[in-house]
Design brief:
mainly alpha
Length: 235
């Protein structure tokens, strides 16, 4: 019981410390932004020596911004619009490097396992079954897969992963298109499109399977050399 009281006390202290650091970072980022704008204005009328000093200062500002990015990865932050709609105002920031890396590793394994499952199911639908029911199961699996990816990627971004915006956006588009396929009624046009789509799905899953092993090996070597961030992902 005493240990539990101590735990709650430390937890309250941690929350206050997080709030204080977050406020301090926000203020400093605002000042750096103002300084950057001032330097841009001064650069237009600066001499050669002054221009060199401005470039050095801008380089230091960029380094400081990277430091703030690393610090914010361990601080609670407001969820984006998508996470707020799906999860509400829940803190999804993981506090330790081990927890962040474990979640990222789980995301990678989830993609790999689902890629294998999608390859098998698309092959079965293409060559073994010709039923709208099995097609609907496959399309529902696609909708669930891409929805889950968008949620997990949003959580990873909150935890410092530098996922490109186009990568997340194309998963939103894939979710929508998979929903269209799921609700597409059976008919001549659907049957004309079906085999091409299933063949493409098999090809895509196979390429993603090979790509995972190639990129995971490259990322492992680059992380060992200190050239890539621990939260970088395979695509």
């Amino acid at each position: 019981q005493d240990n539990h009281k101590l735990y709650k006390q430390k937890l309250e202290e941690l929350t206050k410390l997080q709030d204080g650091i977050s406020s301090s970072i926000t203020r400093q980022k605002k000042r750096l932004k103002e300084l950057s704008l001032s330097l841009i204005k001064c650069k237009a009328h600066a001499s050669a020596d002054q221009a060199e000093s401005i470039r050095e200062t801008q380089s230091l500002i960029k380094e400081r911004q990277n430091v703030f990015f690393e610090m914010e990865a361990y601080l609670p932050k407001k969820n984006g619009l998508y996470l707020s709609l799906v999860l509400g105002n829940v803190n999804v920031t993981l506090l330790s490097k081990q927890a962040k890396f474990a979640y990222k590793d789980e995301y990678e394994k989830f993609k790999l396992y689902l890629t294998i499952i999608l390859l098998i199911v698309s092959f079965s639908c293409r060559f073994l079954f010709n039923s709208r029911v099995t097609d609907a199961v496959f399309n529902f699996l696609l909708v669930w897969y891409y929805c889950t990816l968008t949620i997990r990627e949003s959580i990873l971004i909150n935890n410092g992963s530098k996922i490109k915006g186009w990568w997340v956006f194309h998963h939103y588009v894939s979710t929508f298109l998979s929903g269209v396929l799921l609700t597409w009624p059976d008919g001549l046009m659907y049957q004309m499109f079906r085999n091409q789509f299933l063949s493409f799905s098999m090809y895509q899953s196979f390429v993603q399977f090979l790509q995972y092993y190639y990129q995971s090996g490259c990322l492992y070597r680059l992380r060992a050399l200190g050239e890539r961030h621990n939260m970088d992902l395979t695509v």
